[in-house]
């Protein structure tokens, strides 16, 4: 398969590229990669697809949200996650559908905060919940046998230095295990599923 | 209790006002009501709270989303639900917290499409999923014993003329039953709960 991985330069993206490139032709896109894309910018998304052309799978492994207390939350801080992790991925689906071959797939990235909240996590929770529900809904409308799933993991072992204080008591998972869920989505036949990794 | 109902003029809002006003002092706000508010406008929300003052419960019963096929979806159409039903309610929570008395409550409105998709429902699904997850996350951070829940119902009997074609096979519920869930949220003691009405 020819697979486009968007956000390939991050912790998760690198692990997903490592897993999928064992068996497939992987194109890596990121803000600083060979193929450049800023998912907050619809024109940048269009330019990326024009450069890459048709693929068999589109995988998203990045997305920013704001972490901070509800008492200091503002509409502008809520927009951080809405414009980046949420609408970045939604716009990649809306634009990317025509670049997927028949029977192709989207795999989005969500996260455990959709249902397991932490302090300072309202923006991430909102965004992850939106992604999960979008995936379930888009799955029944995509044309030509195109599938869509999301991977929703707990905190990664490799990210504990930064995110550990937010996730006390959560058992982290190796990011390589999360990459396996992306493989299941891309190389399996399921659609409309949220692959949960490391939920206790 | 002194209860502010935002969106009081709609089908759901009228039923919630009818239920709660049996026992409480209800203030009705809507785009055309005695107390005027446009939830898409942060300044309008602030003006409403300045006019109403402190209350014991804030209830939301309105919110628009776009219904249309995924194949014709655009970022702008996705924004319809994000700016209205989603961020309208989030901003009402962010601004309204300081206007709630100790132990007060928010009750938001979500919907069955968060997990039970229909064709043409991607915007509503995304928005409802975001609201459910926001409620779960905000519940653990609100101060002074303030609670927050959402009511997530299936299609209303009273709305079948308009929404029936979208919801074939769904068993509609009387909107008065949905209003009872708002009463349970406001007059109960639960927080962080999605009250599901008419899920089969």
What does this structure look like?
Chain A is α/β, with parallel strands linked by helices and 200 residues long. The first copy, chain A, contains 6 helices and 7 strands; from the N terminus they run E-H-E-E-H-E-H-E-H-E-H-H-E. The first copy, chain A, has helices spanning 11-20, 42-52, 75-96, 122-138, 160-163, 175-187; strands at 2-6, 25-30, 35-36, 55-60, 100-109, 147-153, 194-197. A 7-stranded parallel beta sheet of chain A has the order 3-2-1-4-5-6-7, with helices on both faces. In chain A, helix 2 packs parallel to helix 3 (75-96). The first copy, chain A, is globular, with a radius of gyration of 16 Å. Chain A starts with a strand and ends with a strand. The model of chain A has no long low-confidence stretch (mean pLDDT 96). The interface between A and B is large, with 43 and 44 residues.
What's this model, at a glance?
With 200 residues, chain A is α/β, with parallel strands linked by helices. Chain A is 38% helix and 20% strand.
Structural class of chain A: alpha/beta
Mean pLDDT of chain A: 96
What's the end-to-end separation of chain A, in Å?
Answer: 33 Å
Question: What's the story with the biggest beta sheet of chain A?
Answer: 7 strands, parallel
Kindly state the percentage of residues in helix of chain A.
25-40%
Q: Helix-strand pattern of chain A, N to C? A: EHEEHEHEHEHHE
Give the neighbour order of strands across the main sheet of chain A. 3-2-1-4-5-6-7
Number of strands of chain A: 7
Strand percentage of chain A? 15-25%
- Globally, the shape of chain A reads globular
Q: Most extensive interface, residues per chain?
A: A-B, 43 and 44 residues
Question: What oligomeric assembly is this protein in?
Answer: homodimer
What integer value in Å does the Rg of chain A equal?
16 Å
Low-confidence stretches of chain A: none
Number of helical segments with 4 or more residues of chain A: 6
């Amino acid at each position: 398969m020819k697979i486009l991985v968007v956000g390939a330069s991050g912790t998760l993206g690198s692990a997903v590229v490592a897993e999928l490139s064992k068996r497939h032709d992987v194109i890596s896109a990121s803000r600083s990669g060979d193929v450049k894309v800023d998912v907050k910018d619809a024109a940048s998304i269009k330019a990326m697809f024009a450069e890459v052309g048709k693929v068999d799978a589109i995988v998203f492994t990045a997305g920013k949200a704001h972490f901070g207390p509800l008492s200091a939350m503002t509409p502008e801080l809520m927009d951080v996650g809405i414009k980046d992790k949420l609408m970045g991925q939604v716009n990649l689906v809306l634009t990317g559908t025509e670049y997927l071959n028949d029977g192709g797939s989207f795999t989005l990235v969500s996260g455990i905060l959709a249902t397991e909240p932490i302090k300072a996590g309202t923006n991430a929770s909102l965004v992850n919940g939106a992604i999960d529900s979008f995936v379930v809904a888009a799955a029944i409308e995509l044309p030509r046998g195109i599938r869509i799933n999301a991977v929703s993991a707990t905190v990664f072992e490799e990210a504990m230095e930064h995110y550990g204080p937010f996730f006390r008591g959560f058992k982290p998972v190796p990011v390589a295990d999360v990459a396996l869920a992306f493989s299941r989505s891309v190389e399996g036949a399921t659609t409309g599923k949220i692959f949960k990794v490391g939920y206790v």
